[in-house]
Amino acid sequence: MTPNQKHPTESETQKELTYIQKVWHTVAIVALLVVVILIARVAFNVLLMVLAGILISVYFHGFGDLIQRRTKWPRRTCMLISVGGSFVILGVLFWFMGTKISNQIAILSDTLPHTISTAKLKMSETPLGKKALEYLSDDNSDELFATARKFFSTSFGVLGDLYIIMFLAIFFTTSPNLYKDGIIKLIPGDKRELAHCVIDRISVTLKGWLKSMMLSMVLVFILLTVGLSIMSIPVALVLALFTGLLKLIPNFGSAAAMVPGVLLALTISTNTAIIVALIYIVTQTIVSYIVTPLIQKKMIDLPPALTILAQVLMGTLSGVLGVVLAVPLLAIIMILVDELYVKKIDKVV
């Protein structure tokens, strides 16, 4: 060591150690936040599956209530008929329609390349179609398909999610009071009456949403099957079933379901494609703006812009499951805000 060099003082050494400790504390906090965010995201997907199980359970109980009102049979018997009868009805439908649907799916898969090439040829004949093809032919198409793959991804995979959801639904159906009472016990004693009120209101709202969705899906399936069959559109049954299932996704589902039907009609003629598009639009308008509002009287009124924002946010966070459950989740949140905040503010004012 040269004479000009000085030993670091004790205070300088202490400051250096303090700085290093602060850096490591900061790194630890950031790492902890990342872990918490990842856990929260996974937990959120699990909560969505719980909500899906609750919705199926609500359906079973609603069906059981209907049977009990009509027959006056014991509750346990009605619930057994509700659960067993639902699976029997699904089995019978797949038995009678499964072969035809599978054949039409095979036809649709085989003819898809020819359909796409024919649709591109028809679209290239119009200026608007050329612009659409230019947009889809560059890097935007890769980005679009990547977004679609991400959008339709789920945390455990589709089959795994369905497996968990069905088991949750069965557990919630067999012992609903066990879980309801467990939630209420977590609430302070003076707030339990309010908790009962909130849970009952949420139950009524979810029943209204389920009733409207099921009837809307059936009506869309029937009307489109008839309309597309009249127009001699191939695989009309599959297209109608696809549209009915996508009715679970408000706004975006209707637009997405319309694409394959119009593309198939475009292979026949441009006029046929226009008529088929009108069939889709008229069907969706009748169901969405006439039938659904009549059924959803007991459901909370959701602003359309807020519904779309909720779907986009939920789709980004949890894929297709989030989009499907965006509306009931938004309804639950609005009920909680109304009961726990808005009504208290109104009382104070």
TrEMBL record:
Keyword Transmembrane among UniProt keywords: yes
Pfam families: AI-2E_transport
Bilayer-spanning residue ranges: 23-40, 46-67, 79-98, 151-172, 217-242, 248-266, 273-292, 312-337
The keyword tRNA-binding is annotated on this UniProt entry: no
Source superkingdom: Bacteria
Keywords: Membrane, Transmembrane, Transmembrane helix
Main location class: membrane
InterPro entries xref list: AI-2E-like
Membrane topology: Multi-pass membrane protein
Subcellular localization: Membrane
Entry's family note: Belongs to the autoinducer-2 exporter (AI-2E) (TC 2.A.86) family.
PANTHER family: TRANSMEMBRANE PROTEIN, TRANSPORT PROTEIN YDBI-RELATED
Record-given protein name: AI-2E family transporter
